[in-house]
Specification:
With 288 residues, this protein is mainly α. It is built from ten helices and no strands.
């Protein structure tokens, strides 16, 4: 029972749970989708039988509830034993510890799987490292045997805690950034498609003598300047997130927060771009 008597109370929820608000991996739905509220409105799946992000998120909610319950039972059993260290209470605490650790690994797996489904939904690339982490937790939850002594359970728990810091946190933070980056990119692509269509229509109208080039020629420059500014924002944010891997070894949470701060001006730029495109369309209509 040294794991509990050393002062660390065994398996610490706040240090190993990994997904509370202090970790930066909060599993609120907005954190899994986008930093910017205006960017996303989920549409129900047309094929309900398929496993999609919405179902993955509901799976996470369920697993989080199960974990909270098993952790509460573990914590109660642990405290009961520490107050009255009988063999019976020790055995109950051991069983509750084993059950909680299995669900904790499952929670990590489900959380990462939910991130993966969101990346697929927005057609963003899925890093092989994310799949590797999902597989690791899927396999590791099976190492907690029903008859394991407490000291063995504590030792195996440390493997999961170590993995969280060395592998899971970096890939999770990078993937969360890629979700925000991907949503921004998708909206930009959509706007650029509209711009290209409007520009072609204007060029054809000018050639046919239906439209005047002025002031469209100047407005094209303004719009393309906004696109260049978005390029700069993208580059800065990607450079920032990469710092968790380069020689500066910035902590994953710090790299993520910095990257999101660099990316956040893109919201205003996309709004500006949308406004400019609306003006283009209105001006075309006014000349017809």
């Amino acid at each position: 029972m040294t794991g509990w008597r050393s002062g660390n109370a065994g398996v610490c929820k706040t240090s190993t749970r990994g997904f509370d608000s202090r970790s930066g991996l909060s599993m609120k739905k907005t954190a899994l989708t986008l930093i910017f509220l205006f960017l996303l409105a989920f549409a129900p799946s047309a094929r309900a039988q398929e496993f999609d992000f919405d179902k993955a998120y509901q799976d996470y909610i369920y697993t989080q509830t199960v974990y909270d319950q098993t952790y509460s039972e573990y914590d109660k059993a642990k405290n009961n034993y520490l107050k009255n260290p009988t063999l019976t209470l020790k055995e109950d605490a051991r069983k509750k510890t084993q059950a909680m650790l299995v669900v904790r690994d499952e929670l990590f797996r489900v959380y990462l799987s939910t991130i993966r489904m969101k990346l697929l939904e927005i057609k963003a690339p899925v890093d092989q490292g994310l799949d590797d982490e999902i597989t690791w937790y899927l396999n590791h939850k099976n190492v907690y045997k029903l008859d394991d002594p407490l000291d063995d359970l504590f030792g195996k728990s440390k493997e999961s805690e170590s993995r969280l810091g060395s592998h899971t946190s970096p890939i999770a933070y990078e993937s969360l950034f890629n979700i925000s980056f991907g949503e921004i990119g998708n909206i930009r692509v959509s706007h650029e498609g509209v711009y290209k269509s409007l520009k072609n229509s204007i060029d054809l109208g000018v050639s046919a003598g239906i439209l005047k080039l002025d002031p469209f020629n100047r407005w094209f420059t303004d719009i393309e300047n906004v696109l260049k500014e978005l390029d700069v924002i993208n580059t800065k944010s990607k450079t920032r997130i990469a710092k968790m891997y380069d020689s500066s070894t910035l902590a994953p949470k710090s790299a993520f927060n910095g990257a999101i701060n660099e990316l956040s001006p893109a919201a205003a730029k996309l709004t500006e771009l949308n406004s400019f495109l609306t003006e283009l369309l209105n001006s075309i209509r006014a000349q017809l």
